[in-house]
Specification:
This protein is an alpha+beta fold. The protein is about 15% helix and about 30% strand. The longest helix has 15 residues. The N terminus is likely disordered.
């Protein structure tokens, strides 16, 4: 599982590092071709409880065959760029710990929120800044021109998506 700690990195934990910002820029002006959700399924302890289910990771696939994989991480304190190996490792660890699959991949390209974005050019990824001018890692706005989608940390757990007007 990926950590946000680098011994020579002075970036605060609530901000994106320079290499992450550069990666975001590399996806701008590419066409979004597929979207996948990775849901964390946490079974209830008793019959009366509702199972917990939240968006653990979002995968955006572009026409260059490159993917941007974003996760709330296990601590759900920041949006992080992760790689597929990290996602698989987390899923395997959870499965061995709990004896069942807890992370499920779901195709989201047909979801209504992505209508108007799939097949379109990503014009930009917008981030908010803190008082020091660093880019915060609690939310990001995907700009597809006529369609804008906000990805942010959920107040409870995981990630949350919404249309941005």
């Amino acid at each position: 599982m990926e950590k946000h700690t680098h011994t020579d990195d002075t970036t605060p934990p609530d901000c994106f590092r320079m290499e992450e910002l550069e990666m975001f820029q590399s996806f701008e002006s590419q066409i979004l071709v597929d979207i996948n959700y990775y849901l964390w399924l946490n079974q209830a302890e008793s019959e009366e409880e509702t199972p917990l289910r939240f968006l653990y990771a979002l995968e955006l696939v572009f026409d260059s065959n490159e993917t941007l994989l974003l996760s709330s991480g296990e601590d759900t304190e920041a949006i992080r760029i992760i790689n597929a190996a990290s996602l698989v490792d987390t899923a395997k660890q959870l499965q061995s710990l709990h004896g069942k699959v807890l992370i499920q991949r779901v195709s989201a390209v047909a979801q209504s929120i992505w209508q108007g974005a799939a097949g379109k050019l990503l014009e930009g990824i917008h981030l908010s800044r803190n008082e020091a001018g660093l880019y915060r890692n609690d939310a990001m706005l995907f700009d597809f021109g006529n369609k804008r989608i906000l990805l942010q940390l959920s107040e409870r757990e995981g990630l949350e998506l919404g249309e941005y007007e």
